[in-house]
Amino acid sequence: MRTVTFPVGGLYPVRHKHAAHRSAIRNAILPAVSIVPLRQSHGPDAELCVAPGDKVGEGTRIGRAIGDLCAHVHSPIPGLVREIRPVTLPDGVISTAAVIDLAGSFDRLGKVLARHEWKTLRPGTLLRLIEDAGVVGMSGVSQPTHTAIDARAAASCRWLIVNGAESEPYVCADHRLMVEHPAEIFEGLQIVERLLAPDRVTVGIGADKRDAMRRMRAHDADGRRRDYVRLSVKYPQGDERQLIRAVTGLEVPSDGHAIDVGCVTVSAATLYAIWEAVVTRKPLYERVVTVAGNGVARPGNIKVRIGTPIGGLLAECGGVTDPVARIVIGGPLRGYATTDLTTPVLKYTTAVLVLTATEVNAAPTAGCIRCGRCAEACPMGLDPARLYKLVAHGRSGDAVDHGLYDCTECGGCGYVCPSRIPLVDGLRDGKANR
Ligand code: SF4
Ligand code: SF4
Hints:
Layout: E1 3-4, E2 26-27, E3 33-37, E4 47-48, E5 55-56, E6 61-64, E7 73-74, E8 79-88, E9 94-102, H1 123-132, H2 145-148, H3 151-156, E10 159-164, H4 173-180, H5 182-196, E11 200-206, H6 210-218, E12 227-231, H7 240-248, E13 263-267, H8 268-280, E14 286-292, E15 300-305, H9 310-316, E16 326-329, E17 336-338, E18 351-355, H10 357-360, H11 373-377, H12 384-392, H13 396-401, H14 412-416, H15 423-432
Parallel strand pairs: 1-12, 2-15, 10-11, 10-13, 11-12, 14-18
Antiparallel strand pairs: 3-9, 4-6, 5-8, 6-7, 8-9, 14-15, 16-17, 16-18
Helix pairs in contact: 4-6, 5-8, 12-15
The structure holds iron/sulfur cluster (2 copies).
The site of one iron/sulfur cluster (SF4) has 14 residues, from helix 11.
């Protein structure tokens, strides 16, 4: 089996996966209160369809998607809608949220869900089931999945790639899903293959996940030809552009999308959610989140309801032990720091990290010494120091000319910068303020 990697930039951060990657997925205690934002994708808020005082069931739709960038939102618990209020998401965006108090009985929890046959269903019906369940990309770009694998994508898709890279340090939720639920993920892949009818299918799994590779291959017995490749552990191997570059050699144009070069990528967690949506007709209201970092007592991979405040999730993991330097939602390179323990878990929350001073390796910010390390690390071939400087001097237009929008916000440049310059934050600001 070949090992592939992307050719430009990248880095090998300390992996920190040991604490959680062998930890079997465990179920979180149900939250007494769920705070469910209506923005669960990189699009606008869904349209609210409940009001304070309404009774909701487990999986009741509470937000209706508007347009292609938005996904339906469902209640993760049965209960009463206490209030509707704004919440700040980890990336600083304000979303309207439904606050739901737990009450009543569960329709699905603790029950064996009936299996629905899908092989005789039309593609339009399969897509509608995925859309109705509110499935979004769960390990990166949170695009509503039914728009990523629809008839337009099927017309152009030649190469379907399963993204099992999970190259950020600490994060291992997808790894555990592949080890523990390969049959479901594999069937999710068959559903996507049915919708897209690609010429080629490649399953890419991180070279550090040999057990996941074994388990996935053991379920590949339907006679279809699929390639399996080991993905190098270089970061950010899981980024869509780098994944496509490594597997196919194709370059996604800077102002384009994967489908422009005939590729569709889908992560293991998303395939699992597709399987749940189609085979068990379960909306996406829970997911596996890695909780890790030296500051948490019992790191692990927790199946948790969307809308659970991260404080509840940390309590589930024995609480915080050492003095905490930073709590990060997502991976340490790409994620967002927060101090607000009421921040809710979203459909695309991969991890909650409680990092100590040693792990953060914090130091005061100093001036740029022009060492060039940030440019060496950039997988997009950019000069982050120059972009940062342009943005800082209010010259975002010039930064755009030098590739600001090619920046995928992978965080690699900031990670290697010896002067601790917050390069990614600066570049994000540059884009936001254009
Ligand atoms: S955050 Fe942007 S500029 Fe920095 S390394 Fe990643 S792609 Fe390059
Ligand atoms: S890594 Fe930091 S110090 Fe070195 S050139 Fe880039 S911004 Fe300057």
